[in-house]
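[SOLVED] Predicted holo structure with nicotinamide-adenine-dinucleotide

Edit: marking solved, answer below. Original request kept for reference. I posted the sequence and ligand SMILES and asked for the 3D complex as structure tokens.
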Amino acid sequence: MNEPLRVLLIGAGARTRKVYGPWLSGLPPYQAEPVRPLAVVDTDTGAARDMARSLPGAAVARPAELDRILTDDRPDLVVVATPDAAHRDHVVQALAAGCTTLVEKPLATTAEDAFALVRAAEDSSARLLVGHNLRFTNLHGQVRALLAGGHIGTVLEADFHYTLGASHSRSYFTRWHHTRAASGGLEVTKASHHLDLLAWWLGAQPVTVTALLERRHYLPGKEGIPEDADIHDSVHALIQYASGATVHYALTLNSPEEGYTCTLRGTEGTCTVQYDARSGPHFVDLRSASAAEGTLRKIRREEGSHAGADRRMLEALPEALMPGATSPFATAAEAALAVATGTAMYDASRLGRRLPIPAPTTPENRDE
Ligand SMILES: NC(=O)c1ccc[n+]([C@@H]2O[C@H](COP(=O)([O-])OP(=O)(O)OC[C@H]3O[C@@H](n4cnc5c(N)ncnc54)[C@H](O)[C@@H]3O)[C@@H](O)[C@H]2O)c1
């Protein structure tokens, strides 16, 4: 049997309770993973203690003790699951100590922070993996394979519309996400999932964006929404990719449904993907330009959170941590582009014009 993966957990909130805690305590469906929790770090020591209680052998620590733990215990993996704006400091600390790190999406809340993390990863001997878990849904891997296999030719355009259900929508306006400073707005904290997926499917970098962000349902100071809520609840954007593809992207809230429909139109046909975030199977409707009839594929919904994506993501970890491995995990540069696309949407909407999407600098074009 493999040596257990020794894991340090930073952030003991909802995401950890749902996914990383059960994984580290070996609860189904994770029992096959040889993992050993070292410590739980949280600014809220009560939350860290509650989590550590279910993780035999795990210590409880404050963020101020992080450097000592990183140096003394040398974890094989640091998991960062704190609120979005707090990612940067802990990721920088872990990478500087040479510890491979899995950080939750979005990588950061600003392009500046995201690009700083790309540089920190380049400067470190350790790897930075970003938990864009939607990549791991069986549906999403199949769509990527279909597109890469040329089934609809070269993608020219796509429509991707994600809707969020009412109670989930409202939670973004009542939890820490309600300020741009904490979450980057929904165009970053939520849309980064979809923007990463689109760039991964298309195999292309987003280059320009035009957008309109509005507040339609959740008005600051009304019906329990905090006065300082400064995020938007309706995002419409037009994104151009380096491949020449154009994507109409929308994220709208307070809907009866939760999930998306995406139609990709290529030189040889179209592919429509339907993903219900709550229940039921997924569908892929493939139509070739040359055949009269299309094929409708029904794809089984896998068990577990995010339609099995979280389990698959954590199962992929041991292989992703092998030296030189390539894996479906988003790299820091890919995740930074998703953040930069979201923040460019906000700027484009505010300024009322099309904007270039900044890309992270590489060691070759970096100003030292
Ligand atoms: N991939 C997904 O599908 C998915 C789903 C939900 C949340 N997330 C992401 O997971 C992360 C955590 O979200 P959550 O819903 O668990 O939030 P949460 O508020 O429930 O939990 C965050 C925890 O971090 C702690 N914390 C805050 N600042 C800290 C700091 N500076 N140092 C140490 N601990 C700190 C808080 O006390 C809290 O216990 C976010 O980045 C979020 O966007 C991802």
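OP edit: The chain has two domains: 5-134, 138-300+332-356. Thanks to everyone who chimed in.
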